[in-house]
Write a structure and sequence with these properties.
5 helices, 5-stranded mixed β-sheet, single chain
């Protein structure tokens, strides 16, 4: 695992990476892609979009948005989308992506990161706990509009 981590490079995502990000999302969910990544990965100082490369091939991604407060929260960041190619899961790629994201956030003066995980997604919940996330003071609420 350490050997693979040394070969991984993390960089900012580009529009040209969208097809590979969609491929990874499809491989994970086994469903039709619902996210419009062309609107997610765009030039904006409010978006931190990263990809992990191994030998020139994208094997993971993490997309975060800067939030400017609200509901008593200071400026922070929200991890909105994250994935690692199933063939490379469990090899430290997610941790490498998170580590770079944490450093970028620190450089931007961001002290709090948030994310939301389905209660039954034990693997992703376990991952986020491993990189230091814990329950927050918030409860996710949902309203479906018909």
């Amino acid at each position: 695992m350490e050997e693979l981590k040394k070969k991984i490079s993390i960089r900012e995502a580009k529009k040209e990476d969208i097809k590979e990000i969609e491929r990874i999302e499809q491989a994970i969910t086994k469903h039709r892609i619902k996210t419009d990544f062309s609107n997610v990965i765009k030039d904006s100082s409010d978006i931190i979009a990263l990809v992990a490369e191994l030998n020139g091939k994208i094997v993971g991604y993490m997309i975060s948005y800067i939030i400017y407060g609200g509901f008593g929260v200071d400026r922070g960041a929200w991890i909105a989308n994250f994935g690692v190619d199933p063939r490379y899961m469990g090899q430290g790629i997610g941790k490498s992506l998170a580590s770079v994201l944490f450093e970028i956030c620190k450089e931007k003066g961001i002290k709090f990161l948030y994310t939301s995980v389905r209660w039954d997604s034990v693997d992703i919940l376990s991952f986020f706990k491993t990189v230091g996330f814990d329950r927050s003071d918030f409860i996710n609420l949902e309203k479906r509009l018909s």
